[in-house]
Amino acid sequence: MPKYILTGAPGAGKTVLIRALEWQGHDVVNEAATDLIALDQAQGIAEPWTEQDFTARIARLQRQRLARAGGDTQFHDRSAICTLALARWLGHPVSVALAEAVEEARAQFEPLVFFPRLLGFITHTEARRISLEEARAFEAMHEAVYREQGFELFYLEPESIESRLQSLLGRIGSA
Length: 175
Description:
By secondary structure, the chain is α/β, with parallel strands linked by helices. The chain has a single domain (3-174), classed as Rossmann fold (3-Layer(aba) Sandwich). It has helices at 14-23, 32-42, 54-68, 80-90, 96-108, 132-148, 161-174, and strands at residues 3-6, 27-29, 74-77, 112-116, 152-156. It is globular, with a radius of gyration of 15 Å. This is AAA family ATPase. InterPro entries: NadR/Ttd14_AAA_dom, P-loop_NTPase.
């Protein structure tokens, strides 16, 4: 069963693409970091990403979701490779949990990764407080980490959701 990753910088439209794929009947796995941030903030931790165990906790949740995921073809909103990029971005150490999750991701996901490009603006939320300039730098780091880990990036340019979906699904059909 093929497992594909959608990744990129905050504000690139990954979650919208995941929701559209889900609406079309595809199996999707939601992003772990945003859910973890929401849970921590509900418990009074205003900026959970400043906690040293933040990326290790994301990796554990990602591994749980990966183990529970079902369906013929899966689309994942981010992966442990993204968490590795985040750990580097935040200057956090790479925990044993994250290192193990990265190895699992390299073995379990398709080598083709879908990478929506930034849309040119950022909509801020409680979890997304990054500026557009920071998002651009984070996008470059994501690209570098995925390539370093041996993945091929397929870019989805900032077009309509329909065009992005056609590109994504068309690429899978030709793979």
